[in-house]
């Protein structure tokens, strides 16, 4: 979760593995949208001397669909190259790195940024530098200065950054994948009741881990289709967002004198739209297939949304806690609420003042109604908490998407489409028990929003050693 190691094959290829995607109207610049895609999950900050980086042989893209057909109308493409300053050193850096052109930094990355619209490519920038990984204070005395140097405002209106950040996703992986344990309710678990006498303290398994982020802040005029008006109820205000990573189809391993080479057309190997979709909804036998397909093909997976395995597991793992959900499961009624949240967007008339519906095409995308302004007091439960600027209206970095998804699957959102259904009392309280406060590196108030990456020297914290 959200999409860390979510499929068998992509888990073997972390450089191309998308772990989280965010899309939200920018709080300090509401005439723009901020899009962030994370890759290379579960980075141990001290993992040197070969620290983490983007793949030179991977094409990273963030896609925007503004007409609801599940195909990209706008794409931002990031392609990276790596340069070695001193080929005779094994070190990542041979002294302090105080600027992006420091001679002490031995392995530098650059990227080309291309905007693709209607099949036409427009290169926005060549050879933009990434910041280094956060090795430690001796190696990088002023890390945030380098981040500022690596944040670029382009003449075309976009702001862009690519580099290492702290992983801001919070989830108790160790508990959830131990037979679906939720530590705040562990004493009610079918097996846990024989072990636990009281609730437990949740653990953020991703805390003090880093990721690599590509982030772009785009004027709304560049992502929305042309229309006469962009009100909160207008279809033209809604965009769908997803990210992909692709590799060339042929890889040739070098011999004693030749380097490895790649050839052939690009083929998609990773995809991410809604958090937890491939992780929790798609069955294991189809996860790698899902990663290769465009959102327009997601009708193939609609039955797993209509009858999610997790909905059946909750009553089985927590006996007598979800009786209403259990009856709903046994009725075999399709979960129209989950189809709306994940595959079509929520139509108008279900939630006062809100819609992010994109039409009839079933496609897994983060759907963002760009006419809904950022919240002055964000609620971590997003739309479920009455905050229409939060998930599933796009996704902000602090949104508690695990709790939101669990509560939706548990039945909280069923009354949107079936007024006769009463959610179980536990459905509105189910949670792994974590929030943004459980992320050690604080989120930033402005671009690129994710916190300063944890440094290798202080991980684990020196005080704990």
Largest sheet: 7 strands, antiparallel
Q: Could you tell me the number of beta strands?
A: 12
Helix content: 10-25%
- Tell the overall outline: globular
Instruction: Give the ordered list of helices and strands.
Output: EEEEEEHEEHEEEHHHHHHEH
Low-confidence stretches: none
Q: Please, what is the average pLDDT?
A: 96
Structural class, by secondary structure, is alpha+beta
Q: How much strand content do the residues show?
A: 15-25%
N- to C-terminal separation? 29 Å
Helices, by number, come to: 9
Please state the CA-atom Rg, rounded to the nearest Å: 22 Å
Number of domains: 1
InterPro entries: DUF4331
Organism: Micromonospora coxensis
Protein name: DUF4331 domain-containing protein
Pfam families: DUF4331 (PF14224)
Structure description:
This protein is an alpha+beta fold. Strands 3, 4, 5, 6, 10, 11 and 12 form a 7-stranded antiparallel sheet that branches. Helices cover 14% and strands 24% of the residues. The model has no long low-confidence stretch (mean pLDDT 96). The chain has one domain (10-171, 206-440). The chain has helices at residues 143-149, 173-176, 277-281, 287-292, 302-306, 309-317, 323-331, 336-344, 401-410, and strands at residues 18-25, 32-43, 59-65, 74-84, 107-117, 120-129, 152-153, 159-166, 210-219, 238-252, 261-272, 366-369. The chain is globular and about 70 Å long.
Write a short abstract of this structure:
Pfam families: DUF4331 (PF14224). InterPro entries: DUF4331 (IPR025566). The chain has one domain (about 10-170, about 205-440).
Q: Topology, please?
A:
Blueprint: E1 18-25, E2 32-43, E3 59-65, E4 74-84, E5 107-117, E6 120-129, H1 143-149, E7 152-153, E8 159-166, H2 173-176, E9 210-219, E10 238-252, E11 261-272, H3 277-281, H4 287-292, H5 302-306, H6 309-317, H7 323-331, H8 336-344, E12 366-369, H9 401-410
Antiparallel strand pairs: 1-2, 2-9, 3-4, 3-10, 4-5, 5-6, 7-8, 8-9, 10-11, 10-12
């Amino acid at each position: 979760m959200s999409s860390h190691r979510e499929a068998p094959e992509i888990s073997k290829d972390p450089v191309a593995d998308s772990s989280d995607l965010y899309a939200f109207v920018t709080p300090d610049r509401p005439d723009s949208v901020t899009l962030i895609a994370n890759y290379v999950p579960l980075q141990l900050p001290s993992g040197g001397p070969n620290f983490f980086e983007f793949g030179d042989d991977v094409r990273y893209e963030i896609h925007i669909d503004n007409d609801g057909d599940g195909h990209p109308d706008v794409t931002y493409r990031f392609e990276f190259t790596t340069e070695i300053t001193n080929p005779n050193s094994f070190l990542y850096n041979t002294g302090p790195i105080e600027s992006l052109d420091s001679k002490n930094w031995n392995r530098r990355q650059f990227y080309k940024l291309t905007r693709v619209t209607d099949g036409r490519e427009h290169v926005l920038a060549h050879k933009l530098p990434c910041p280094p990984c956060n090795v430690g204070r001796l190696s990088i005395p002023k890390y945030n200065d380098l981040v500022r140097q690596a944040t670029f405002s382009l003449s075309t209106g976009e702001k862009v950054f690519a580099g290492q950040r702290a992983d801001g996703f919070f989830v108790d992986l160790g508990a959830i994948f131990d037979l679906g344990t939720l530590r705040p309710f562990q004493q009610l678990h079918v097996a846990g009741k024989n072990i636990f006498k009281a609730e437990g303290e949740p653990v953020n398994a991703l805390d003090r881990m880093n990721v690599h982020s590509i982030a772009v802040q785009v004027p709304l005029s560049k992502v929305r289709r042309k229309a006469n008006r962009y009100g909160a109820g207008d279809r033209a205000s809604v965009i769908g967002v997803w990210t992909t990573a692709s590799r060339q189809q042929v890889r040739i391993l070098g011999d004693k004198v030749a380097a490895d080479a790649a050839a052939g057309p690009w083929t998609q190997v990773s995809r991410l739209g809604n958090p937890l979709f491939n992780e929790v909804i798609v069955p294991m036998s189809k996860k790698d297939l899902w990663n290769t397909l465009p959102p327009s093909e997601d009708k193939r997976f609609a039955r797993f949304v209509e009858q999610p395995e997790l909905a059946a597991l909750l009553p089985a793992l927590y006996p007598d806690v979800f009786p209403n959900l259990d009856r709903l499961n046994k009725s075999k009624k399709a979960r129209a609420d989950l189809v709306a949240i994940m595959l079509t967007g929520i139509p108008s008339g279900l939630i006062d003042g809100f819609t992010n519906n994109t039409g009839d095409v079933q496609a897994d995308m983060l759907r963002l109604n760009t006419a809904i302004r950022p919240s002055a007091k964000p609620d971590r439960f997003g739309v479920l908490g009455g905050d229409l600027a939060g998930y599933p209206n796009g996704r902000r970095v602090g949104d508690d998407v695990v709790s939101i998804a669990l509560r939706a699957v548990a039945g909280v959102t069923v009354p949107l489409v079936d007024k006769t259904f009463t959610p179980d009392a536990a459905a509105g309280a189910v949670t792994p028990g974590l929030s943004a406060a459980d992320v050690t590196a604080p989120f930033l108030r402005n671009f690129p929003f994710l916190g300063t990456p944890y440094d290798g020297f202080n991980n684990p914290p020196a005080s704990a050693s």
